[in-house]
Design brief:
This protein has 442 residues and is mostly helical. The chain has 2 domains: 184 residues, Alpha Horseshoe (Serine Threonine Protein Phosphatase 5, Tetratricopeptide repeat), CATH 1.25.40; 224 residues, no CATH class. The protein has 25 helices and 3 strands. Strands 1-3-2 form a 3-stranded mixed sheet, with helices on both faces. A hairpin with a 4-residue loop joins strand 2 and strand 3. Helix 21 runs antiparallel to helix 22. The protein is globular and about 75 Å long. Bound molecules: zinc ion. The site of zinc ion has 7 residues, from helix 6 and helix 11.
């Protein structure tokens, strides 16, 4: 008897395990990566502006969700947007549809999609000292968009890999494979932030130009680079992707300083906006211990030290029980240790804190399937699907849930929809076998 037939039997007896289900999906996820979702294989080479915008629309929402979504705090996102607008209005491509959000991710980084959708992690925001440093960070990111670095990248490797991150959410949520692979977890953010050295130099140079045009002191770029140099020295093992992907910080700092003292010398009498920055970011800096604990927990998870990770997340939750990120991370940490019932509690709390964030919905859905509760699973997977349409893995899981509920026709629709997206892999085989045994295909 083939593997998928025995799984089918298990499913009929409603005894499919979460691991079996994920095994099905894991295999399909791999085969699904081979083709680029964005169309032709050469899309990144000489991308048109429309194509750049299309990449944003297709991939950015998934990546932001994977980075635990935007901080649900309108004033702080508004503040970031205002600083960004001041800068991009002085850039070479002011017409691009820039957008700015502070992400709940705890690692230190910022990244931007080629159409201008930018994410700044709360991890880096709480480390900055003033608005000029923030302007330097946003200016650098705008530099990449304006110099169209993503469009120049060779081949389709980036887009293919970025698209994979969407698929990988399943593994990451449920705690198999990619969960512990931090490179995968960081997904597109690493790819987007890992430009060539020349690209980095150019982005620095453009960023400093924009910030000076926007009224900031050029020394802000020196401050930002110094911060990265210091952090690299302090905690080289941390998940500080800003400098693993943005190397040669001291060289970049020296260049920024040189320019600040010569070409842009006149700008340095300007106000760096320290008070304004501290006022506008106070809500995040108040929970810095939570952010730090989450960051340490994630590092421990990456090293498979789950007990230690759990301790850190517990510390974070003790300080800030209603922190969406800490609840999601705790759920992941418990799930990877097969403590599904406990994981469910934290995942559910996360959906209550941020009902509009997709990732926790999927986590509850998958955990509910593991707990043989297809009704609950379907409810949350469907909610995920509405928030983040187009995730083939979720289409399949909705089919499994509906089958568990005895809603055969609707399950068949989901399996058929899944097969439209991919014909390879165990989940596809499984879907096909169901359609076959129900008489939809011969
Ligand atoms: Zn960069």
């Amino acid at each position: 008897m083939s593997q998928h037939q025995s799984l089918a039997d298990n499913l009929l007896r409603n005894s499919i395990t979460r691991r079996q289900m994920l095994w099905l999906l894991g295999a399909s996820a791999l085969s699904g990566c081979a083709s680029s979702p964005v169309g032709s294989g050469s899309i990144l080479v000489g991308m048109s502006e429309d194509e750049e915008k299309a990449v944003d629309q297709k991939v950015a929402p998934q990546q932001f969700s994977q980075d635990l979504g935007a901080v649900q705090d309108a004033p702080i996102n508004q503040y970031l947007t205002e600083v960004g607008q001041r800068l991009h209005s002085k850039s070479h491509r002011p017409q691009m549809p820039y957008s700015y959000r502070v992400l709940n991710a705890n690692y230190v980084n910022a990244y931007t999609f080629p159409g201008g959708a930018m994410g700044v992690t709360r991890g880096i925001l709480v480390d900055l000292d003033n608005e000029a440093e923030l302007a330097a960070l946003l200016g650098h990111e705008l530099g990449h968009v304006n110099a169209r670095h993503a469009a120049q990248r060779q081949g389709t490797a980036m887009v293919t890999q970025v698209a994979m991150t969407g698929v990988n959410i399943i593994g990451a949520v449920a705690g198999v494979g990619s969960l512990t692979d931090i490179g995968t977890q960081l997904g597109a953010s690493v790819l987007l932030a890992s430009y060539s050295r020349d690209n980095e130099r150019e982005a620095d140079s453009l960023g400093q130009e924009y910030m000076v045009r926007a009224g900031y002191p050029a020394s802000g770029m020196v401050g930002l680079q110094q911060l990265l140099v210091d952090q690299q020295k302090e905690s080289p093992g941390m998940l500080k992707t800003m400098f693993s992907t943005h190397p040669m910080s001291s060289e970049r700092r020296d260049t920024a300083r040189q320019l600040a003292e010569s070409k842009y010398a006149a700008s340095n009498t300007r106000d760096a906006g320290r008070d304004r920055f501290l006022d506008n970011t106070a809500s995040l800096r108040r929970i810095k211990p939570t952010i730090d604990a989450c960051q340490k927990g994630e590092v421990a998870m990456a090293g498979k030290a789950y007990g230690k990770a759990e301790e850190q997340f517990r510390t974070a939750l003790k300080a800030t029980p209603r922190d969406y990120a800490a609840n999601v991370l705790m759920a992941k940490c418990l799930s990877v240790q097969d403590k599904d019932a406990q994981a469910m509690e934290y995942a559910q709390t996360a959906t209550k804190i941020y009902p509009q964030e997709a990732q926790a919905q999927k986590m509850v859905g998958i955990l509910a399937l593991g707990q043989k509760d297809p009704a609950k699973a379907y409810e949350h997977l469907d909610r995920y699907d509405r928030l983040m349409p187009g995730d083939a893995g979720v289409t399949f899981l909705k089919g499994v849930s509906l089958e568990g509920l005895g809603r055969q026709q609707e399950a068949a629709n989901q399996y058929a929809a899944y097969l439209k997206r991919t014909q390879k892999g165990k989940a596809a085989e499984y879907s096909y076998s169901r359609l076959q045994s129900w008489g939809y295909v011969k």
